[in-house]
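Sat 14:20. Reprocessing the chain from the morning session after the first attempt stalled halfway. Input below, unchanged.
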Amino acid sequence: MKSSVLITFVCRSSCAILRVSVWVICAGLTFSQEAPVPATPLFPASDWAEVSATYPGVQILSQSFDQPRRIRIYAARIDLQHPGLGVVTTGRHPQWEPGVRETMRETTTAFVCRKRAIDKPVVLALNANFYYPVGNEPAPSVLRGLAVSNGELVSPSEKNRWALVFPSEGPVRMQPTKPDTDLKNVQYALGAYVAIVREGAIFGDNQP
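Finished this time. Tokens:
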């Protein structure tokens, strides 16, 4: 059975933009204000079957809505077992100090150009962890939530935050984190705020 990851991210306007933040990792999302309720898949299997690969092993779909607000949702489905596909993320700051200097912030475009310049042929790039101080120019920054790059801790995990985890062995997973989260065998990790959908239903107070 193939292993794949579905990354869904949201743009809060109808226009196309270069930079978006990873919002939620799920197969479906609804906009109901009541929870829990069954989630209606935004990107059913029939839609994916009709989409040509943007790059071998990578498919991209989008949906637009006017209610409850203007919003465009993109989804990228990535076959992690496709030959030649892998994951790469921004690493530690050279003078790394957690909570002070964790990494160097950069735009998505700058990340792609930098990686391609060192023979890393990036084909799809997304913003991940929130960070501060905010800005577009390269500068030392602190990340919010767990971040691991090539097995090396970049930003410690925090209580009540979720992370997308790429282990050195086994399937990709979304998991809640806390300060003492076990990072054994974690090759890459990207932090997020909260989970909105679990097992096909919106839960808790995390409605979009």
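The mean pLDDT is 77.
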